[in-house]
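User: Please fill in residues for this 289-position structure.
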């Protein structure tokens, strides 16, 4: 499927532009802002946010997702150690960003260390460290609207609770009777594992890690950007009892992802041996990306 990307302005050219917007404007730390200012998309902090979601909602169709699954799944581009994956991801850092000098490793470390400091299981700590590694898709030439941002089911009616729902009017699926009903191509209570999600780093990393981590961890990775589900309680007609059980873990993970940044970054030299042992416990020496 062809997209309109080549004729449109490129939103959020810096990866940190997106991450800083999400943390500071879309999902600010609880009790730090007035309730009515949360998720203020009418007056976003960055002018490029609306354009990002316009492109995302225009191009994330059922056929587009199937195309990307065929292109990238199973993961086979290259085999890397986790350390090599982090080095690869860190090439996305923009040194001119005035808001933060943290690279991708520091964000992952701050997330995982916040989880560890709260005494959670080591697989939960590992999930915090790994959860954004799927953003290596940017380095395979994918536009940011196909890597980051809120995720949602495709192949059925788009929820009005997804950010900027008005942009779905330009998505061809919204006019296609195969895809624009409540159930679309799915059956009631089929379970989210049988639903195709919009393409991005969450879905991709789930497939990279699905043979290595506990089910709770895989749900955290796969659905941590699906705010229409875990925050807005949408798509109940699609999920099953297993999804209801796993929702607890997705919601438990969310605050660590969004609110774990701190002014003093963790010391990687001091922590590296701990994480090396953690990788060896759960993961093979090299992983297919």
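Assistant: Residues filled in for all 289 positions:
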């Amino acid at each position: 499927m062809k997209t309109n990307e080549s004729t449109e302005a490129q939103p959020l050219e810096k990866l940190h532009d997106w991450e800083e917007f999400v943390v500071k404007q879309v999902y600010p730390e609880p009790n730090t802002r007035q309730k009515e200012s949360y998720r203020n998309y009418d007056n976003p902090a960055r002018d490029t946010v609306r354009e990002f979601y316009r492109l995302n909602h225009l191009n994330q169709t059922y056929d587009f997702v199937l195309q990307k699954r065929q292109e990238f799944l199973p993961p086979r581009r290259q085999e890397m150690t986790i350390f090599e994956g982090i080095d690869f991801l860190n090439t996305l850092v923009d040194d001119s960003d005035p808001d933060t000098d943290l690279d991708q490793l520091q964000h992952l470390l701050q997330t995982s260390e916040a989880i560890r400091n709260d005494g959670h299981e080591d697989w939960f700590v590992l999930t915090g460290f790994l959860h954004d590694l799927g953003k290596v898709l940017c380095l395979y030439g994918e536009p940011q609207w196909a890597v980051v941002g809120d995720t949602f089911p495709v192949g059925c009616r788009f929820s009005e609770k997804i950010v900027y729902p008005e942009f779905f009017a330009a998505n061809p699926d919204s006019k296609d009777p195969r895809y624009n009903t409540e159930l679309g191509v799915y059956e009631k209570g089929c379970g989210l594992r049988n639903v195709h999600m919009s393409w991005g780093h969450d879905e991709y990393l789930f497939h990279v890690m699905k043979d290595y981590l506990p089910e709770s961890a895989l749900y955290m990775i796969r659905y941590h950007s699906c705010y229409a589900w875990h925050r807005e309680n949408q798509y109940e007609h699609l999920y099953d009892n297993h999804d209801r059980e796993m929702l607890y873990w997705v919601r438990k993970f969310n605050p660590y992802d969004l609110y774990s940044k701190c002014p003093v970054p963790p010391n990687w030299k001091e922590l590296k041996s701990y994480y090396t042992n953690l990788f060896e416990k759960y993961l093979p020496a090299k992983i297919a990306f």
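For context: The first helix runs from residue 15 to 26.
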